[in-house]
Amino acid sequence: MTKQSERRRALLQTIDAIDTIAYHHFIKAVEDDARSGVYHRGSNHIGVGPQEKARVKLRRLMDTVCEVLTGVPLVQWEAMYPRFSAGPFDDSDLATYAECFFAALAAIKAGTRSRAGVERVLRPTFGGAIDHAKYTTLGQPGATG
Q1: pLDDT (0 to 100) of residue 41
Q2: Residue 68: pLDDT above 80?
Q3: What pTM did the predictor assign?
Q4: pLDDT value at position 42?
Q5: 144 secondary structure, DSSP code
Q6: Is it the case that residue 118 has pLDDT exceeding 60?
Q7: How far apart are CA 135 and CA 65, in angstroms?
Q8: Helix, strand, coil proportions of the chain in percent (round to 5)?
Q9: Torsion angle of alpha carbons 10, 65, 96, 122, nearest 10°?
Q10: To 5 degrees, how large is the angle CA 46–CA 47–CA 49?
């Protein structure tokens, strides 16, 4: 295995670990909210388990990270790269993605609850840090400009 592929594997493992930590944090937060009565009768969350609510929260966080870094929402990345998980990024951008994802999780764990709040934390350091044109040209995956 080459050094570059070892680094890439390590970066992807780091992102997977952050993803897992975030997911479990969100499950706990959803369960805590349920115990405190945040999800009440008439809520659109009735009948949805904590795992699904946690997945929705995690997806919103990942969307925020993608949009802050690239200016492109997660859904557009997924349209170009099915099963997107930061995989199309080169190693340097993958490292930046991991750092931003970790910072976003840290903001959430520190009590930031809104998307706007997370963006305020991330934008000064990470806003536009990944040039999406490196990976897309007129919606063509992997095309370079």
Answers
A1: 45
A2: yes
A3: 0.84
A4: 43
A5: -
A6: yes
A7: 17
A8: 65, 5, 30
A9: -130
A10: 105
